[in-house]
Design brief:
Layout lengths: L1 H31 L6 H17 L4 H24 L7 H23 L16 H7 L5 H23 L1 H11 L1 H6 L4 H27 L8 H12 L4 H30 L6 H16 L14
Helix pairs in contact: 1-6, 1-7, 1-9, 1-10, 1-11, 2-3, 2-4, 2-9, 3-9, 6-7, 7-9, 10-11, 10-12, 11-12
């Protein structure tokens, strides 16, 4: 039973890391109604900017500030030269634009900051917390706990931002109807610029945490794919849903990796390793059959 709890807790903590990437998708979707395929590339680009500035001799905290400025400029440029020209276009048009942005960032990042695999040292050692291990026997990583606290703090701030501030209400209005928001005097360009700037900041935090754990490398762009099942479960428009979806995916994939292969091998023989890689997608596919809008998503009803 102790092993079960240990696997579950570590899965939940990993799930919060997935939630951080999913959060970037949610922010863009809430403001523009489009799925931002470039979120994974933004995470990679932000992490590259940090290590690139460190290689230039800057301290970590200055490199983080510099990277935030880079992501802010990138967000403003995206709004100015991409989104502003596509107002009221079909969602598929905006989606294709984000695919183009993905390839652009994946090429520009290594060109500016290099493509060598490098690590980000945040000063948080990835080792068990001795006090918890001695009292409960559970092995909980200091880094996982730090990353989870960071994600929860960020999500709390963003949830309050969307629900309690004037800009947050304007963001929701823009997401519902671009033309109606413009007719009410809401500056669409300013709102999109703000949300892309915030999404860039979220990508920077995700890049710092994932880059510290796995190293800054092209594989960071693939973390976006792990966020897809999280979005399907939580809903594309819900900030809390990104957290709940991440927790479910994180825990279920770890438990599936441990407990399903022995059962399958007893029944069919052979090797059933690597379940962690595809189980979240199968789980999300089954979930779609029963609740397509996600746990916290809004039901879409067309009246004719």
């Amino acid at each position: 039973m102790q092993f079960f709890f240990e696997v579950t807790i570590n899965g939940l903590l990993s799930g919060l890391m997935y939630s951080l990437v999913a959060l970037g998708f949610v922010l863009i979707y809430k403001a523009s109604g489009v799925f931002n395929f470039a979120q994974g590339a933004m995470v990679y680009f932000a992490a590259l900017a940090v290590v690139g500035l460190i290689d230039m001799g800057m301290p970590l905290w200055i490199a983080i500030i510099g990277s935030f400025c880079v992501m802010l400029v990138m967000g403003l440029a995206t709004e100015r030269y991409v989104l502003r020209k596509l107002v009221n276009q079909p969602p598929i048009t905006l989606f294709m634009a984000t695919i183009g942005l993905t390839f652009f960032l994946e090429g520009l990042g290594p060109l500016l900051f290099g493509s060598d695999v490098r690590a980000i040292n945040l000063g948080i050692v990835d080792e068990p917390i001795i006090a918890i291990m001695d009292s409960t026997g559970l092995i909980i990583s200091k880094f996982d706990l730090f990353a989870s606290a960071t994600v929860l703090l960020l999500v709390t701030v963003l949830a309050l931002f969307f629900q309690k501030t004037k800009i947050g209400r304007a963001l929701r209005a823009v997401a519902d109807d671009h033309q109606a928001a413009l007719s009410l005097g809401i500056p669409l360009q300013h709102i999109w610029a703000i949300v892309w700037g915030v999404a860039g900041f979220v990508a920077l935090v995700a890049g710092l945490l994932w880059g510290s754990r796995n190293g800054v490398q092209f594989a960071l762009t693939m973390t976006a794919l792990k966020a897809l099942p999280v979005l399907i479960l939580g809903g594309f428009t819900s900030v809390p849903g990104a957290i709940v979806g991440g927790l479910i995916i994180g825990a279920s994939e770890k438990l599936a990796e441990i407990y399903i292969p022995p059962v399958m091998q007893d029944m069919f023989g052979g090797n059933f390793g690597g379940i962690e890689g595809w189980f979240p997608y199968v789980f999300a596919l089954i979930f779609l059959l029963f609740r397509p809008e996600g746990l916290f998503g809004e039901k879409h009803i067309d009246r004719v």
